[in-house]
Amino acid sequence: MKKTIVLGIETSCDETSAAVVRDGKEILSNVVASQVKIHSQYFGVVPELASRAHIENINWVLKQALENAGLTGSPDLIAFTSGPGLMGSLIVGQMAAQTLSYFYDKPLIEVNHLEGHIFGAILEYPELKPPFLALIISGGHTELVMVERIGRYNVLGQTRDDACGEAFDKVAKLLRLGYPGGPLIEKKALKGNAGKIALPRPYMRGTWDFSFSGLKTAVLYYLQKNPLKKASKQCPDVCAAFQQAVIDTLLAKALDCAAKFGIKKVAVVGGVAANRTLRRAFDEGASWANVRFFFPRPGFCTDNAAMIACAGYHKFRYNPKKSSSAIKICTVDTKLPLRNW
Ligand code: KG4
Ligand code: ZN
Q1: Which residues lie below 8 Å from residue 274, measured CB to CB, with a gap of 6+?
Q2: Structure confidence at residue 105 (pLDDT)
Q3: 3-23 pLDDT, tens per residue?
Q4: Which atom of ligand 1 is nearest to the CA of 180?
Q5: Which atom of ligand 1 is nearest to the CA of 163?
């Protein structure tokens, strides 16, 4: 049977990425151009600068991805992130995808970014079959999703304010650590004592929703009462306490939800899932709860086009008629909710 080669394109936020994936599982290339250097001085992503950087990067990233894949012909399918994300950034990916679809005369598949993150786990673990629970923890989203079958999602809960990664980024800003905050807080926390500072756990009992803005404000109040002293261990302690509060909250909710729905498999995806301390805590929690957590490798947790190509492959296989041609104007949507196919 002929294999399907998918070219994936991801530009929803501050990573310009292109990947070539065969049959939804074999990665031939996955190129990611990060814009961290541009945004770190502002402690967060500046949308206007992000779109400009995507325009500068998209051509060489695509060229590199196609060359690295060593393709002799054209890809069979072009998949791109159509939302949610930053409008100016999404449009750059869409225009590239439409142009290539027209040039190669191949179908175009629109992929929801959150769906892409879920497929990051399927790409890593082809044996991971629904039903399973997905905990999506990224810079823009925190969601608990029941994956009933491939392409059928039931969103059980989501954040009511700050996303989990956003809280990491904002706390890092309060501490003047830089951007992205997650890896910087994780590193500092290794030298800190999580028990030294009492912070709340926003469990949001009775719902599957999340809320991290209060936790972030608790860190702010702590810092107002206890200004950071130079050369003290205080900053690592704040980082460790904050990180632990996030981990405890996410783990408790994921385990509660898995127990309630009788689910034994939980995929943990999105940038925050790259956090090693979180992964260790979850694995410990899993052993006594008889649940297995599926963590993609860190490069599949943060934004990348391989997960988009994988999602595009499955979507096309499920219903080839739902693909569009390059001539049709696709719609990018900054708030695109996770939809069933
Ligand atoms: O999934 P992602 O790359 O982009 C979005 O879709 O938002 O996630 C980026 C987020 C950022 O907020 C970043 O601080 C966080 O993921 N992140 C981490 C770690 N690596 C990235 N958070 C905690 N620990 C990490 N090691
Ligand atoms: Zn993402």
Answers
A1: 182, 183, 298, 301, 302
A2: 95
A3: 999 999 999 999 999 999 999
A4: 14
A5: 12
